[in-house]
UniProtKB/TrEMBL annotation:
Transmembrane segments: none
Gene symbol of the encoding locus: mmsA
InterPro entries per the UniProt record, alphabetical: Ald_DH/histidinol_DH, Ald_DH_C, Ald_DH_CS_CYS, Ald_DH_N, Aldehyde_DH_dom, MeMal-semiAld_DH
Molecular-function annotations in GO: methylmalonate-semialdehyde dehydrogenase (acylating, NAD) activity
Domain of life: Bacteria
Name of the molecule in the record: methylmalonate-semialdehyde dehydrogenase (CoA acylating)
Species of origin: Rhodococcus daqingensis
EC number: 1.2.1.27
Length: 492
C-alpha cells in the first residue's frame, strides 16, 4: 500500500510512527497510509518555513509570480491525474474532482497578479515637505488547516495569496484525503518554488495545536466545521496570532412563485445532491414561497429518484459516496429521526446500496418535506445529499428563516422579479448571495466569505486575503533642504 509522506523542505519525509489508513469511500478498502506528524516533524516543518522566509520574502514580486504561473500550468497539465487522486480518496466523481482543480487554478491565477496587488499607497505633502506612505510586509510562516471536502481547492485559496505576498506556508490537510496535497507540493517544487516555502504536514488535533501555539508561526487560516473553526479561532487568538476560520453551512434557496419550477428542480438536484451534499455551498434547504411547494416536490421526486448513485470512478455516476462510515451512519440516523419526528419523506434513498459496492459509504438523494423549524434536520448541517423543503407565505418569512439560522454562508433566490431579487440581495444574512444561481461561489477575484457561525474573523479567502497575509507599515518622512546642499534644484 502507498505511503503518503509529509513534504518538508522540498522533500518527502516519513516522520511519525502513528499512521492511519486512507480509505476509498466507494469500497471501504484502505488505499494508502499516512503518518500523523510527531512533534519533531511539526517542528522541522516550522523550521523549514522560518529558514526559507528571508529568501522568499526578498525574492522580487515578479519572480514569485513566475513560479505561480509555472505552477498553474503544471496544475492544469496534471488535472486528470490529480482528479483521480481526489476521487480515490474523497469519493466525488472524476468530473467534479477535475472541476475542483480548475477552481484551484482560479486562485493561483489571482495570485499571479501579485505584482499589481501587493502594494500600499502614498500621500504627498501630508505636512510641509512631509509624505506618508503605507507599505505591505509579509508575515513569516503562515499555517493553513483544510477540510476533506475540497482537498485541493481550499488549500490553494490560502497558499496562493500567502506565497504571492512573500510568506512561507505550512499546510495541514485533512487526514482523510491528503494524497493530492502532497502531489501539489511536489508540483510547486517542480515549478521552481524554493525548498521550505511550502511544507505539508499530516496530523490531527495535536498537530494543529502545535502549529497554532509555536512562537514561529504568525497566522492561521482554517476551513472546516464550525465546532473546530471556533476552537481554532479561540486558540489562535489567545496565542496572539492572526486567524481566519471558516465553518459549516446550511444554505437556503428561496423559490418565488414566479420561478420556473423545472429550472429550480434541476438546479436543486445538482446543488443539493452533487458531491453527495458535501459542499460548504450546497443548498440543503429550499424555501418555497406560496403555492408552488407541491408541484416542485413532484418534480424533485422524479429527479432525485433518477440521480445515478455510484463509485466516483464509474462512468455515468452523478453522486458518489460520503467520506466515511461515521458520516454515512450519522446522515442516515438524521433522516430516520426527521421522519420519526413527523417529516414527510418525498424521496428516501438514504439507505440505498450500490450493486458491486455494497461496503461503500453511500447515502442516496433524499427529499424531506413538512420539516419543523426546531428539528435537527433543519437546524444542523447534515453534510449529505438531503434536501429539506419548507413552505412559507412571503419573501419576508423566507428572509426571517435565513436571518434566524446560525449559519450564513450562502443563500440564493430563484425569481423573474427584479424587485424581489434586489430585496433579497439587500436583506439576506449570508456572505455569498445567488440570484438565479444556486451555488454562488464568487470567482477568485472576489472572495469566499461567510457570515455568523460560518466564519470567524473578518477577512475572506482569495482576493480578500491580501491584508490577512501582509502587515502594513506606515512611513512618514520629511526632507527639508539644507542650506548649501540643494544643488540648485529648489525654485527659490
Ligand atoms: P473538520 O472540522 O472535521 O476538520 C477540518 C480540519 O480540522 C481537518 O484538517 C482536521 O484534521 C482538523 N481538525 C479536526 N478536529 C480538530 C480539532 N479538535 N482541533 C484542531 N483541528 C482539528 O471538517 P471536515 O469534516 O474535514 O470538513 C467539512 C466541514 O468543512 C463542513 O462543516 C463544511 O461546511 C466545512 N467547509 C466550510 C467551507 C467554507 O468556506 N466555509 C469550505 C469547505 C468546507
Amino acid at each position: 500500500m502507498r505511503t503518503i509522506p509529509h513534504w518538508i523542505n522540498g522533500s518527502p519525509v516519513a516522520g511519525g510512527s502513528d499512521t492511519i489508513d486512507v480509505t476509498n469511500p466507494a469500497t471501504d478498502q484502505p488505499i494508502a497510509t499516512v503518518p500523523m506528524a510527531d512533534s519533531a516533524t511539526v517542528a522541522a516543518a516550522i523550521a523549514a518555513g522560518v529558514a526559507a522566509f528571508d529568501g522568499w520574502s526578498q525574492t522580487p514580486l515578479s519572480r514569485r509570480a513566475q513560479v505561480l504561473f509555472r505552477f498553474r500550468d503544471l496544475l492544469l497539465e496534471n488535472r486528470t491525474d490529480l482528479a483521480a487522486l481526489i476521487t480515490a480518496e474523497h469519493g466525488k466523481t472524476l468530473d467534479d474532482a477535475a472541476g475542483e482543480i480548475s477552481r484551484a487554478a482560479d486562485s493561483i491565477e489571482l495570485a499571479c497578479g501579485g505584482p499589481a496587488l501587493v502594494r500600499g499607497g502614498t500621500s504627498l505633502q501630508t505636512g510641509p515637505n512631509i509624505d506618508t506612505k503605507s507599505v505591505l510586509h509579509p508575515l513569516g510562516v503562515c499555517v493553513g488547516i483544510t477540510p476533506f471536502n475540497f482537498p485541493a481547492m481550499m488549500g490553494m485559496m490560502m497558499v496562493s495569496v500567502a506565497l504571492a505576498s512573500g510568506n512561507t506556508f505550512i499546510w495541514k490537510p485533512s487526514e482523510q484525503d491528503p494524497g493530492v496535497c502532497v502531489r501539489i507540493a511536489e508540483l510547486f517544487t517542480e515549478a521552481g518554488l524554493p525548498d521550505g516555502v511550502l511544507n505539508v504536514v499530516h496530523g490531527r488535533q495535536d498537530t494543529v495545536e502545535h502549529l497554532i501555539d509555536d512562537k514561529d508561526t504568525e497566522a492561521v487560516a482554517f476551513v472546516g466545521s464550525s465546532k473546530v473553526a471556533h476552537i481554532v479561532y479561540s486558540r489562535a487568538a489567545a496565542a496572539g496570532k492572526r486567524v481566519q476560520a471558516f465553518g459549516g453551512a446550511k444554505n437556503h434557496m428561496i423559490v418565488m412563485p414566479d420561478a420556473d419550477l423545472d429550472v429550480v428542480a434541476d438546479q436543486l438536484t445538482s446543488a443539493c445532491f452533487g458531491a453527495a451534499g458535501q459542499r460548504c455551498m450546497a443548498i440543503s434547504v429550499a424555501v418555497v414561497v406560496g403555492e408552488s411547494a407541491e408541484p416542485l416536490l413532484e418534480k424533485l421526486q422524479v429527479r432525485a429518484g433518477q440521480v445515478r448513485l455510484g463509485a466516483g470512478e464509474a462512468n455515468g455516476t452523478e453522486v458518489g459516496p460520503v467520506i466515511n462510515r461515521q458520516s454515512q451512519e450519522r446522515i442516515q440516523a438524521a433522516v430516520k429521526e426527521a421522519i420519526a419526528g413527523g417529516a414527510r419523506a418525498v424521496v428516501d434513498r438514504s439507505a440505498e446500496a450500490v450493486p458491486g459496492f455494497e461496503s461503500g459509504y453511500f447515502v442516496g438523494p433524499t427529499v424531506l418535506a413538512d420539516v419543523e423549524v426546531a428539528s435537527a434536520a433543519y437546524q444542523e448541517e447534515l453534510f449529505g445529499p438531503i434536501l429539506v423543503v419548507m413552505r412559507v407565505d412571503s419573501l419576508n418569512e423566507g428572509l426571517e428563516l435565513i436571518k434566524n439560522h446560525r449559519y450564513g454562508n450562502g443563500a440564493s433566490i430563484f425569481t423573474r422579479d427584479g424587485a424581489a431579487a434586489n430585496e433579497f440581495e439587500r436583506r439576506a444574512s449570508a456572505g455569498m448571495i445567488g440570484v438565479n444561481v444556486a451555488i454562488p461561489v464568487p470567482v477568485a477575484a472576489y472572495a469566499v466569505q461567510g457570515w455568523k457561525d460560518s466564519a470567524y474573523g473578518d477577512t475572506g479567502l482569495n482576493n480578500a486575503s491580501w491584508s490577512f497575509y501582509t502587515r502594513p507599515k506606515y512611513v512618514t518622512s520629511r526632507w527639508d533642504s539644507v542650506a548649501g546642499t540643494d544643488f540648485g534644484f529648489r525654485p527659490n
